[in-house]
Amino acid sequence: MKPKVVLVTGSGPPDACGVGDYTVALASALEKAGERVELFCHRDWSVGGTVDALQKLWRDRDALVHMQYPTVGYGHSLGPQVSLLMRGGVVTMHEFSLAHPFRKVSLFPFTLCSPLVVMPSEFERRALVRKMPWMSKRVRVIPIASNIHFDRSPSRSRDVSVIYFGLIAPRKGIEDFLEFARLVRAKNFNWELAVIGKVSLKHEAYAKSLASSLAQYRVRAILDRNSEEVAELLSRAGLAYLPFPDGASDRRGSLKAVLAAGLPCLTTCSEQTPDELARAVVQTDSPYDAAEAAVHFLAAGELRKASSEKAYEYSRQFSWERIAELHVDMYRELRTSAPRA
Q1: What's the pTM?
Q2: What is the mean pLDDT of the chain?
């Protein structure tokens, strides 16, 4: 019997953490692909909590440890780095290019102890290798998939609505969505507008500060719903507006979800936006551009249908079956190259 895989995360449902949600979905996909998987969600990374985590990982000495980093639960602790440095294992770095310089330095221990490092996109791989060129032959690119599962192909019947979907936090683009809402209401459009997402304890005050603006521009706040409810909401929406400050990229789980729902997406693009992804979205550089584009898309059924089909077709290459297959191939490579006792 092949050794099990221990997926290590600092967050998981009901925490508001995209990487935590992803890890849970990955565990399920790997089990369906025939791997023995244990999900190790450990939220205490103080000195004592790190010791507890290490003791657990050492007990499973034959297991293949695969850490997902960062998560909300890790906070600013170096416990995850210490644990993997002492225990050994693989790490998926879900972000690097835009990380704070101190955060980038803190990732150095992972490059010492991990035989392979997984990055979610080619852009992120290049960013890592530029800073840490000794990693060039030890990086694997495995894209992420949508954390929201859809049981059927996209519906052709859509509401006259525009939604924002993602974590409710500063610098996630919500401010631009509210400016978009102001412009829409100034033009007297009665479209349904909604913000769909989760609020972490860390950002509760920020979420409360949005309440008056949401009410002023008649934007519904639909918060902390389960994945089935979110899937239904995305399947009915007319458009999504996701104005990422740093541009759309393959590592955005919220973007993967709206595209998997066949939802035409107005968004920003940047150097980290692959050409294929840029063709699957509608590029808008400002809330004003987004408001103008929304007028055309909500009025023209054929235009919206064509954009919906492009979004859905793009998303199909990121099925959980494919993501699991890429992981299984990597685990097989690691098991084959591991020294025998």
Answers
A1: 0.91
A2: 93
